[in-house]
Design brief:
Blueprint: H1 6-21, H2 32-39, H3 43-55, E1 59-62, E2 67-70, H4 72-84, H5 86-90, H6 92-102, E3 105-111, E4 115-122, E5 137-139, H7 144-150, H8 155-163, H9 177-190, E6 193-196, E7 203-211, E8 217-226, H10 235-252
Antiparallel strand pairs: 1-2, 3-4, 3-8, 4-5, 6-7, 7-8
Helix pairs in contact: 2-3, 6-10
Length: about 270
């Protein structure tokens, strides 16, 4: 039997990653035909690929719903990644303190280049069914954590986000690029972002970026609540509290305040 070349191996790995990218919180179970359609490949090819991934425990069959879902092997690998992340380890006290002070949901998310991944969450006493879930990959353009991080990214990072699908989740979602750039400039100026019912109607969120030792905004922490719980009049005070805790986490990661400039073309203050 002919051994696969390194180039063929890379192509196969790329196909596996494309399959994994098809799944989400909303699309947790997908059929062979659905995956074939999304990848634009023949159903027979999709079936062979999915069978191989199931053999490797990357996927599991959901016979009740007639499709495939992500396997527990991925959960194990993800847990290993989380356990090795400094921000995941050091954020516990800050998040619990924010939750104690605000009595609202607190999220910690990291930026993956296009969207944000929620890596830790503490729910409020009145848990919101529409709030972000743990390990959920969420859009960056309409979430508090996403916008807080994007405000300190270079223009090409924003280009990459807008090159993808920009969904208008609510009437308040900003989908126009020029309007979004103005929003990012405002966020950079004041140091925090507001998701004002842009991802889910009835949910308001305040978020602040977290910087690493190199001065890169790679994560954000947020407080979210119902629109009648987290009122516009309460935003400034909540933001001060969130920023205090975010700055503390940045300092623990080795970030020195006011040493890194804003991305080129962005007006506003350098992170404090």
């Amino acid at each position: 039997m002919k051994k696969p070349t390194s180039e063929e191996g890379i192509k196969s790995l790329h196909k596996v990653m494309r399959v994994l990218d098809c799944f989400s919180i909303r699309d947790d179970v997908l059929s062979v035909s659905e995956i074939a359609s999304r990848l634009d490949i023949p159903p027979s090819t999709a079936h062979r690929l999915l069978s191989s991934m199931r053999s490797a425990d990357l996927l599991e069959q959901d016979k009740r719903r007639g499709g495939y879902r992500l396997g527990l092997k991925l959960f194990s690998l993800g847990s290993t990644v989380l356990g090795s992340m400094d921000i995941h380890r050091i954020s516990v006290d800050a998040m619990e303190e924010l939750h104690r002070i605000t009595r609202m949901s607190v999220h910690l998310a990291v930026f993956d280049g296009e969207g944000v991944l929620v890596v830790r969450k503490i729910g409020s006493a009145r848990e919101l069914s529409t709030s972000l879930n743990l390990m959920e990959r969420a859009p960056a353009h309409c979430t508090g954590v996403g916008k807080a991080i994007l405000a300190y990214q270079p223009p090409e990072a924003i280009d990459r986000v807008f090159a993808g699908e920009i969904i208008q989740f609510t009437p308040s979602t900003i989908v126009d690029r020029e309007a979004f750039d103005r929003e990012l400039a405002t966020i950079a100026e004041r140091g925090y972002s507001i998701d004002d019912q842009e991802h889910n109607i009835g949910i308001r969120c305040v978020a602040v970026p977290i910087f690493n030792e190199a001065g890169k905004a790679f994560a954000a922490i947020s407080v979210s609540g119902t629109a009648w719980e987290l009122t516009p009049g309460a935003v400034d005070e909540i933001a001060k509290t969130v920023k205090l805790h975010a700055d503390t986490l940045s300092a623990k990661l080795g970030h020195v305040a006011k040493t890194n400039p804003l991305p080129s073309g962005r007006k506003g203050k350098a992170p404090a």
